[in-house]
Amino acid sequence: MSFVFFINGLVMVFFAALMGVVALLFPDTSKMFGEAALLTGFMGGTLAMASSPRTEGLRPLHTFLLTSSVWMVAALCGALPLYAYDLSLADAFFEAMSGITTTGSTVMSGLDETPRGIILWRAMLQAVGGVGFIVTGIALLPILKVGGMQLFRSESSETGERELRNATMFASATLQIYFALIVICGLLYFVGGMSPFDAVTHAMTTLSTGGYSGYDASFGHFDSAFLQWTCTLFMLFGALPFSWYIRGLRHGRWKSEQVTAMLVSLAVSIGALSLWLMITRGEGLFDALRLVAFNVISVVTTTGYATTDYTLWGPFAVVAFFVLTAAGGATGSTAGGAKAMRWLVAFRALKAQIRQSYAPHRVTFVKYEDRPVAPDALSGVIAFFVLYAATFGVMASLLSFFGLDMSTATSGALTALANVGPGVGDIIGPAGNFATLNTPSKLVLTFGMYLGRLEMATVYALFAPLFWRELMTAR
Amino acid sequence: MSFVFFINGLVMVFFAALMGVVALLFPDTSKMFGEAALLTGFMGGTLAMASSPRTEGLRPLHTFLLTSSVWMVAALCGALPLYAYDLSLADAFFEAMSGITTTGSTVMSGLDETPRGIILWRAMLQAVGGVGFIVTGIALLPILKVGGMQLFRSESSETGERELRNATMFASATLQIYFALIVICGLLYFVGGMSPFDAVTHAMTTLSTGGYSGYDASFGHFDSAFLQWTCTLFMLFGALPFSWYIRGLRHGRWKSEQVTAMLVSLAVSIGALSLWLMITRGEGLFDALRLVAFNVISVVTTTGYATTDYTLWGPFAVVAFFVLTAAGGATGSTAGGAKAMRWLVAFRALKAQIRQSYAPHRVTFVKYEDRPVAPDALSGVIAFFVLYAATFGVMASLLSFFGLDMSTATSGALTALANVGPGVGDIIGPAGNFATLNTPSKLVLTFGMYLGRLEMATVYALFAPLFWRELMTAR
Ligand SMILES: [K+]
Ligand SMILES: [K+]
């Protein structure tokens, strides 16, 4: 239990260090970042020193508490400088949660004139949140069988447990690849004409599939085919399983059902929507492909950059983007959403189920990556879908209760839960902004992002009385 | 295989007899109904006599084929008089499928002036479809473990297999109760001031949770609190498990988790929406309760009558009705939708799954009605939810591709799949009509109602090549 406090203390110290970096780089915001750094660092340091780093006696139970609290503390730390800058408490909390969960929905407008220190801070939150999500999943949560967290385990065991027995080693490999991808992406952005600052911050929010931009026009600010194609590619890179990179780079084995499924479904969606755009709006092939590929990949990878308001492409596009929002990237990546592997496993379970009924004499296994899926992994996948649907329904009802119209309420609920960013409609669509929503709606959405990033079950467990009884008796 | 043709032949003869009844009762439409009866009767009779009633060698496989074909043949038979009357081929097929599946969406306007023979025919389709759904599930499909059809089995086994070993006996008890409820409801309608014709046709479409009315204003045509409360009650009766009535009447055991869950969630929804209506529109308590109870129960039981355009109650009401559409009635009733028992089982599985992760030393069973749920029943429930979500997504995308706006496309897909009837928005909302939709959209919706009524898996199996290979080798 004391270990939970210890880690939270370290997280605060880490965020204090990041604030310090911003304070040093940008004189115009150095006072607020400096003060926030001192406050956070002092509190975090005290907490860490007052508690114990001993991990003995840690049980799955504690991991729930650890994960939930670390992400909440990170959001609060992230909110501090934003609150000191200009935002209301609810807005700062919303913006920081949106950053750390790599959702990328923003309540800030006038980004082009916002101090660059704030822009860097938002990018930092996403960069940390993105890799934090992978590392949380891979290194910290293999004991969990819940929700889909165990899917990380299957991803990482895929890579050959012998070589990567050490979770720390695996986490460090992930960090290296993540960092390398950000650097390459940033260099290409620079080559393509971005300023060094834009290149760095946008590379951070691209690979983290976060989608914060330094400009109100989002990535549409950069009117360059080269930059847009680069971004398209690197958003995709951020949403592929990092264990897949590690295995591929070390062993040359690049075959992955999940990656194949993602690429095939992306190709189909991009093809269909490009055709739609060419027919209904008379776009040329290459323009249509560029527009569609960027925006589809942005939504499926849950990045949420936009180069254009695709909700103006007609009702088919609107519904298609709504459906794509639910798809999500790959497990073990920075992306949110339901994830390709869950859809794969669910559809195979379904097919097996139907086949079983008309051909009961045939033995049917549900397989994934050539191995049978364990029953508890299967029920984890299912639990996730039911939680997803139910949470979506409750959130949409609450949002509409607080006065949002139907498109805004439903797409807002979905975009928060899947950590995508933009919704549908005039208010929160790709051309809009979350600023004008009322405070209760913002709080619902903030909690939705938190639930989505922690894949729900981790948070819901904290609401079970039995959880706390178990925790009390645990030591 | 020959048995499948035999039953389809009988179904056609049965529909011919119904057409004959209409022809005898209403002189103004007797020619078209008479001709349709002769044609259908001749074809059905020939088919039945040319095939064999022998049931030996029947396998689960054949039951799929039987169910799918019977419902398709019934819809085609139902469409014949409507086509002969006035409707286009697509419209007649839509209207008949909507009738036989007890969906109740209509493409016909000017109902008040429509010949009463046609109005009776629509009511007959729903009355037959409603009880047909229960009997299909209980008597014909206990061998199926797919989708949720096996849920009927658990409902019927609940009633004590010893007494009701005979499926025929069970089906006849169901028919008796169904008929008795229609008679009581019709009498109350008559007492409340309806004409005998209105009382009969509306009792038929109330208990079948079908929702066809003889008037453009739907049940709102009858401006009587007594009639509306009667209807509210009997819609609910139609959506409760018929096995529950049988068990209750025979053994006095009325305890049922599913019924309790339905009543509790109805009470909560009605309470919340009444409050909303009282606050936002200043309605009095009793008026609010009557309005809300009628329309909520109409949607949850998937009847789809409307007394008012509840989509004008503001965004919270719209989203609430959207969510309620997905809820559905009880298994083993005439209602469509996901069904209360599936939600119950899914949420318990979920809770068990989460609990398992933080308290792995505790053994957790998923129970329903005090008995553990078998793993294959559990995966049937799950398969259903995934199919439901995926089919909904594909249908909504197709509808929007054919030019419907987002609200119409999404609510249209859901209302067809759940066999509810009205959607949301100006076009297909409770005050609207499906007439103005284009033909491709109507076909998508027609197929959606068919899928929804057969709980999807039965139809999807027919698309598997293995199904046909198995069928070929079966004899
Ligand atoms: K995002
Ligand atoms: K209905």
TrEMBL record, chains A, B:
UniProt GO molecular function: metal ion binding; potassium:chloride symporter activity
InterPro entries cross-referenced by the UniProt entry: Cat_transpt, TrkH
Subcellular location: Cell inner membrane; Cell membrane
Segments crossing the lipid bilayer: 6-26, 33-52, 64-85, 123-146, 167-191, 226-247, 259-279, 312-332, 377-402, 447-468
Topology in the lipid bilayer: Multi-pass membrane protein
Top-level taxon of the source organism: Bacteria
A GO cellular component entry from the record: plasma membrane
Keywords: Cell inner membrane, Cell membrane, Ion transport, Membrane, Metal-binding, Potassium, Potassium transport, Transmembrane, Transmembrane helix, Transport
Binding site for K(+): T102, T103, G210, T302, T303, N419, V420
Major site of localization recorded for this protein: membrane
Keyword Disulfide bond among record annotations: no
Pfam families in alphabetical order: TrkH (PF02386)
Family: Belongs to the TrkH potassium transport family.
Function: Low-affinity potassium transport system. Interacts with Trk system potassium uptake protein TrkA.
The protein, known as: Trk system potassium uptake protein
